[in-house]
Amino acid sequence: MKSTVCVSVAALLVGSLVVCVQADDAPDEQLAKPSPLKFAPSGARLANADDVRKRLGLLPEYENVPGIEAIKIAVLDYGFDGLGGARQYLPANAVIVEHYDAEFVRRHKLGDPEFRKAFAPQNSHGRSLAQIVWAVTGLHPNGPQFFLLNANGPTMLRRAVRYAIDAKVDVILFSGTFEGGGNGDGRGPMNRIVADALAADILWINAAGNYGGRVYNGPVKIRADSFLRLGAEPDSTALRFRNLLDENTVAVTLTWNDYREQEDAGTDKDLDLIIEDGQGKRVGASEKTQVQPKDKVGPEETLNPRERVVLVDLPASGDQDYRIRMRAKKGNFGDLDQIRVVLSPKREVYFDPQTNGSTSSVRFVDASGKSELLPPADNPLVITVGELNFTCSRGPTLDHRVKPDVILPDSRALFTNGEMTFGTSNSAAYFAGVVAVLKAADPGLRTRHLLWFAHYGPAQRVIIGRDGMPLSPSRPAGADLVRSPALRYPTLVQRLPTTASRLPALASASRLPMPLEAGQRLLRLWQTPSRQELGAQVQKKP
Questions:
Q1: Do the beta carbons of residue 379 and residue 191 sit within 8 Å?
Q2: Residues with Cβ within 8 Å of residue 284, at least 6 apart in sequence
Q3: Which helix (H) or strand (E) holds 196?
Q4: pLDDT tens digits for 486-500?
């Protein structure tokens, strides 16, 4: 799993201990009731909670909503460091599950009961997200009740979802995505796990991911020499990227759209992944053999349509391109077959002194600039949340659905210990807090209502310039031509029609601050509905 990490500006949040509480094997109301965590009210919190709630449209409209303590929120993540110690970070009734009881695993057929995977050590990613949610809901001492569940990998995610279903949670927050496990169309084994929660009427909030400008999608076109034709040039057999930092680690993941609903379903289509430096020297390769299910899968065999290479300790490549190549080994590839390549640098962004701003640590020259959502963010019934930033994964999905569903203008979170984080993980956490408040205000709230408000309800509309930043009367057209790192990547929304006759009418109808110019985009930002609007929509579509 590749989580949509909240990037820390100063350092990672570090707490004290990882709490290990086993899940009971009893369902529903007989779930484990661990002793309340004994906190002292001294833990760091979101520094500007009231300002955040105002910006999100919760104050004063939703101040002191009754019933918020009864809402149950499951945060599925891989790190909750700091909980269980002397500091209070969350309400005292929070439940933490690192390892799932063997009988619980056996009864629900959730894999080998002896298999365990711990939280990531000294990682507080999930804890900080839960803190954001709690702040948005009003920092009530008795709730919402949080279930902090280990989702460190596909097996743990499956167990976490089942635990959340048995606990009858109202909202699931998952700020992770998987580089494999799906075909970009909302299907595949990862989305099959999510489907169980959706069937239980749980509101699933998912981060869009921070893969902006780092994804390539394309058809499988095989040359006579078995290498794939790639990129925009007709005779090109390579995708190009540059590493901008020394001592960087970059993972290159290749998948193709032969995932089935069942995990490890097997495939008879086989591709190899090869990485070369600027001189054509091979620096890495993944050449596993794709196979159908059998009793024993060898170390160089795989059941999944996936190859992955991790390039460790890369020097900055300067003006030289690394080249990603693919070779077809076997299988009857056809016109409907598609490949996806994802770059995952260990250091995603860095401060560039030449532009006085943040930029990506890798430049994927041949990135597609769209359809960057990984599972389960591509699921049609999860609420996918992004942010107004060039790092945010862009839509549409590969089956042409508009995603992300919700865009927030600012994901930054400042804590009282001086730490600041940002990224789509934070955006999803902010929105999960909004959803919890809306659910408390109207218990009839369902996924269909949130999707309606996201795509058809009241919204703020902004023009996104060619540099990926919003335009306004104080930042007029032409200001977006500044030479910024964002110019290397398309912006996070789909291109609108750019005919001269269409643009003025579009701008006028949307009450935009100025007409659109070629290369600019229109973006809807989330606007929280009033209590009256919420009640009317829930009553209209019960």
A1: yes
A2: 252, 274, 275, 309, 310, 311
A3: helix 189-199
A4: 333 333 333 333 333
